Amino acid sequence: MAIAAAGRLNFSRSLGSVLNALEGERALERIVRGKKTQMTETSRPRAAVDRIDRRVTPFLAGHGLTFLRLALGLVFLWFGALKLFPGLSPAEDLAARTIDVLSNGLIPRSLALPGLALWESAIGIGLMAGKWMRATLLLLVVQMLGTLAPLVLFQDETWLRFPIAPTLEGQYIIKNVVLVTAALVLGATVRGGELTSEPISR
Fold this sequence. Notes:
Blueprint: H1 2-82, H2 92-102, H3 109-129, H4 133-148, H5 150-153, H6 155-158, E1 159-161, E2 165-166, H7 168-174, H8 176-187
Antiparallel strand pairs: 1-2
């Protein structure tokens, strides 16, 4: 009888161990299932963003440079044309004085502003047409160097505290750095460069 009792006790213990193990497996399965559900719920927004990216990015890669070229051309044509009409461009006085200093007085104001206006307008037309890009970008870079010159030539007017606090005129000039950078991006396309929507594997 003692042997039978011991057998029953061992059986009960074994059964209890098996049940405990099964319960542990179920608990582990519930934890894993919960984590999978949580990961699925978290990944849904990411998947939606990824789908949008895959639709939008090829469009931007295919047309972004064209938009940049047209926008840059519009700015140059617009601001250049304003200089043909006295009093419409807020930069005309500073531009005329800059040309006077850079040319050592050889170019009179009566020629400086119309010449600058035609120069900028030609850049704008070239960019918007997408033709003669090498010449157009060269004109743009040279014009931008002249545009940035007042930051050095007329520091009293372009800086509240040199070189960290520009005046409103100084800010107007400094923003041209963005235009120069945009021209550099367009310059990379002259020999057939382009944007791609996915990394190019090598």
